[in-house]
């Protein structure tokens, strides 16, 4: 599984509609509205790099109201859940 984090700048007046449209795309697991220089963060979870291109370039960037995106591909996931599983003995 490949995870990509996509920073999205959107038309300010349309942020809720843009977020809902992005969240409905196949491959998008979550969308967060955030403070700061970007408006939304979309989490993409797919099987291949080609699938990232299909979701981001072919679909997400074409959502009406999306002005700009920056995509980051995750190398590893570090979470409490992962760490607890790694150090669990006898489970």
TrEMBL record:
The lineage of its organism: Bacteria, Bacillati, Actinomycetota, Actinomycetes, Propionibacteriales. This is Transcriptional regulator. Pfam families: AsnC_trans_reg. Gene3D superfamilies: 3.30.70.920. It comes from Nocardioides baekrokdamisoli. Residues 6-76 form the Transcription regulator AsnC/Lrp ligand binding domain. InterPro entries: Dimeric_a/b-barrel (IPR011008), Tscrpt_reg_AsnC/Lrp_C (IPR019887).
């Amino acid at each position: 599984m490949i995870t990509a984090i996509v920073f999205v700048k959107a038309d300010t007046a349309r942020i809720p509609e843009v977020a809902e449209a992005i969240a409905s795309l196949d491959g998008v697991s979550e969308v967060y509205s955030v403070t700061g220089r970007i408006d939304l963060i979309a989490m993409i979870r797919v099987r291949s790099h080609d699938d990232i291109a299909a979701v981001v370039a072919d679909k997400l960037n074409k959502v009406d109201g999306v002005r700009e995106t920056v995509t980051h591909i995750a190398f590893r996931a570090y979470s409490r859940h992962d760490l607890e599983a790694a150090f669990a003995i006898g489970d």
